[in-house]
Amino acid sequence: MKTEIVESGNQLIARFSGRLDTLAAVQTAEDVKPLLSASNKDIILDCTELEYISSSGLRIFLSIRKEAAAHGCKVIVRNISNDIRQVFMMTGFISLFVIE
Question: Number of folded domains in the chain?
Answer without folding.
Answer: 1
